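Two records follow; treat each independently.
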Amino acid sequence: MGRAELSEPSTGTGESVPVPVDGRVPESVLSRLVGADAEEFAARHWGRKPLLRRTGGGFGDLLDLDGVDEMLSRRGLRTPFLRLARDGAVVDSRSFTGGAGVGAEIGDQVRDDRVAALFADGSTIVLQGLHRVWPAVIDFTTRLAGELGHPAQVNAYITPPSSQGFSAHYDVHDVFVLQLAGRKRWKVHAPVHPSPLRDQPWSEHADAVAARARDDAPAIDEVLEPGDVMYLPRGWLHSATALGDVSAHLTIGVHVITAFALVEAFTALVGSDERLRTSLPLGIDVADPDRLEAHVESVREDLIAALRAVPGDAIARHVRDRTWQGNRPEPLAPVATARFVLGLGDGDAVRRREGLRFRIGDTADGRIVLELPDRRLSLPAATSTALTALLDGRTWRLGEIPGMDRGDQLVLVRRLLREGVLMAATA
């Protein structure tokens, strides 16, 4: 597949707008992956077909091989943040983990010497959950998930020369592959089970996957070099083999919110309809289709009526938790934040944490409600203008926040800092 010239995406709701730096909005991280016209990517590729793009740049700012060695030897990793694979199978973690020594009573910490031996013997290293442990990847993923509107995770795969970590398979999430180092040959085949759900793994179609990879011509058969990016929608079969030297790539897994998530929300919410909670008759044989048919038809009619009565805002509240809880917002320094709150005063700058999911509403008694992924904050109605400003993504200085006098600004900002909604800004 050829190079695509793609455009800047719409950032959607205010929850996803990148935090300005020195008055400038940072470059879209999605555009870094798919090119300038992300709207074309959304229309032609998102959830539909793969994209291979040779950027001519690199991703060493996110992770390099020195960083990989640092994590394996100096960061005290434990499973499941590391796994190894060999000949398409996962290596037993007991072969590369052990006790952590004096002062750290941990039995499953990574042993760098064992990892080194297994890697030299042909095992692929898989660093999992880098969006939780490696600073550059944390920041990148926070912004990307906000732009996509779907949760994302990041793993790194480091493969010895001329080795294959996993045989042909498909993922139940979309992926972006970012080649970091070395060269890797990728073979991609069309799906045998398009758009799989999370409980529909490739192993359920193992024979069809093996046959497709063995017998059919690949849709992509290309060598990725540092700086290359490939996007694969869920369900597309893929395998990769390192060529000539150590190869490393990042896989960004996008846990897409699907139409079936709305189905699940409807299913959860129609339970409020009493007709759908009634008991079937005593002594009924539910295995007999003839005995069950009348009840099936009755329930179907009641279900359709109940589905039509479910309000859209109830669906939104139910589904949003998958996105809101999927990724944490920008990391917050607890000690530095506490010190900042203690010394808070006129002229101090604050901003909303990037990646924070929220919604502002009100209650019947006129108070303002700030809905967060794990809780709701109730605030006086008089905070409305100031709260809206503080959450708009810009940097604000105490004394300049609209809608409140200086003393009330201090109270509100202190509360939002302690709740992890705001953070100190360098302005």
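The next record belongs to a different protein.
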Amino acid sequence: MPLALLALAVGAFGIGTTEFVIMGLLPEIAGDYGVSIPTAGLLVTGYALGVVVGAPLLTVLGGKASRKRMLMLLMGLFVAGNLLSAVAPNFGIMLTGRVVASLAHGSFFGIGSVVAAGLVAPDKKAGAIATMFTGLTVANIVGVPLGTFIGQAVGWRTTFAIVAALGVAGLLGIAKLVPAMPRPEGARLRSELGAFRNPQVLLAMAMTVLGFGGVFAAVTYIAPMMTEVAGYSAGAVTWLLVLFGAGMFLGNLLGGRYADRALMPLLYTTLGGLSLVLALFTVTAHHKVLAAISIVLVGALGFATVPPLQKRVLDQAHGAPTLASAVNIGAFNLGNALAAWLGGLVIAAGLGYTAPNWVGALLAAAALGLALWSAALERRTPATPRTRVVATGTPTADETPAPAHS
């Protein structure tokens, strides 16, 4: 794998850390600003919505810039947002800093996925995307627990200052290691928007919303589930989240490896397995060891869907993949917000802290249904010489090869 992927992974590490570390620092931030925990929770909601809005917005606004320059600008925006959060004198400015940082999130991963795929041979694209996303998974194993510890011991402002420094490191790495990759000839907003007329692109994004949403239905409420149902202490929740991060890391590696070989069968396996594990989690959550194992499996199966889903969008929007790739990153966060809301509804209805697991199981099962439908449509749709692309993204012998896109 090219060394340039390391620079993208460093940026992903910083983004992953700032996205998730806020959950462990909410009490400290709420106390400093004199707001309630639910009000402080707007820092999570605001970030997620910023990703959904920023992914297509900044990708369109930066449409005339080279992809390398866009990645550098996005990391600069990320650094500015985290610095603003670190020095924010009141809660409103803190929330503004979070939103500013989040605007870079979707476009960075969307454009970064296109760049990563363009750095390697067609049969290694999913592996390259997974390498970049390794930074996000490692953030949940190292960055989030360490950032939470530093924030609780020294002060949460120090955590955000360190995250800003990580962003600077990612920016410098991109400037040094990522090759100049201008946008392909003829790439226009109309062609980028045209990708959304492809039903397969829309189906892949719907799978993203539902599939990874299933993960967040359970994980959003993991703390009360583990303390009130499994019997863990509050202090053990941090280490349970490390297990979840370890599962994400493993799933990302396996997803990246096997998506290049058999993308759709991998999605059938991971989405089906995720639905089953989440359903069983309603039972295993009552036992400490089984609950811990379930958390690892949810992380592994959930994140094993990320490289194949992102590659599926790139394959189906191969003529103009940048905007579709960025919007699909927003779809992950849309799924997170939707699943967290649905999980909260079933808890508020008095169904208990394990009820969100059923929500997640149903969402993952719905994503599996969409995957099967997508494959059935693909089998029934006759290929044309200019549009037919096999799962690996390599044109078949009877096609006119599409021009390479970086």
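Discussion point: The mean pLDDT is 82. How would you locate this feature using only the token line?
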